[in-house]
Task: inverse folding
């Protein structure tokens, strides 16, 4: 039995954008200024780092922005492992006060970064990740998973000691979509396990990923014009879709255990 106490521990969103290009410290300074203005904050730390040359790839780079107050922590990262690799634009929030705060700040920061980068960029992948914590009414996550979900004894066959950790994971493949339906059929990765720092609770992580190309039911990649995803939505829409999946699919699955 689950207690009705799901809490968001963190949320992450990322775009992959191209074409590949190396950004400089000057670019990073401009991005930092734009994000500070967009969020109305003057306490966002800034760090720029250029990596060493990689064989055949040129230099990579990393732009890191961070604002932290107590355990609430927001990070914006723009980086690439090499000059010829796509750029990853990532937003992370640890222990946010609310989902709406995440939606608003991610949308504002994303718009600021992309505007600072100028024209000519293409988004080729979107990924949203939500981490949560769930109290278990029995005060034992191992007991809940073993007897409620998996239906086996908490003492594993052949083991000398009782189980101290248990979890499960499932994945779904990305599916077909029409060009106008930007959020349809993402790939889902779902993990549920004992929260190591507090074994009375469950740790939940759900990742949704939207690739650019459509995949038909037989696994064939569709290259036709109507089967190329357009990434026009802000980060909040992808995060909402992932949170809705948690509410509509994952939590009811656990509550039926």
Result:
């Amino acid at each position: 039995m689950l207690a009705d106490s799901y809490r968001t521990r963190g949320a992450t969103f990322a775009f992959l954008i191209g074409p590949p290009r190396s950004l400089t410290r000057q670019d990073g300074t401009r991005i930092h200024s734009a994000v500070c203005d967009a969020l109305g904050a003057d306490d966002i730390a800034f760090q720029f780092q250029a990596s060493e040359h990689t064989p055949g790839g040129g230099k990579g780079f990393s732009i890191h922005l961070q604002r932290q107050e107590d355990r609430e922590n927001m990070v914006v990262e723009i980086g690439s492992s090499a000059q010829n690799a796509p750029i990853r634009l990532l937003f992370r929030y640890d222990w946010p006060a609310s989902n709406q705060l995440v939606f608003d700040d991610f949308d504002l920061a994303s718009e600021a970064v992309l505007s600072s980068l100028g024209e000519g960029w293409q988004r080729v992948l979107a990924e949203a990740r939500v981490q949560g914590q769930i109290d278990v009414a029995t005060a034992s996550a191992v007991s809940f998973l073993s007897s409620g979900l998996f239906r086996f004894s908490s003492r594993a066959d052949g083991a000398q000691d009782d189980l101290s950790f248990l979890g499960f994971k499932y994945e779904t493949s990305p599916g077909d979509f029409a060009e106008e339906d930007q959020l349809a059929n993402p790939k889902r990765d779902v993990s549920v396990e004992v929260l190591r720092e507090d074994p009375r609770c469950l740790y939940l992580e759900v990742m949704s990923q939207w690739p650019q190309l459509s995949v038909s039911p037989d696994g064939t990649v569709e290259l036709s014009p109507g089967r190329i995803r357009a990434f026009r939505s802000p980060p909040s829409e992808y995060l909402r879709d992932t949170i809705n999946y948690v509410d509509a699919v994952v939590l009811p699955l656990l509550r039926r255990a």
About this structure: The mean pLDDT is 87. The first helix runs from residue 25 to 39. DSSP finds four helices and eleven strands in the chain.
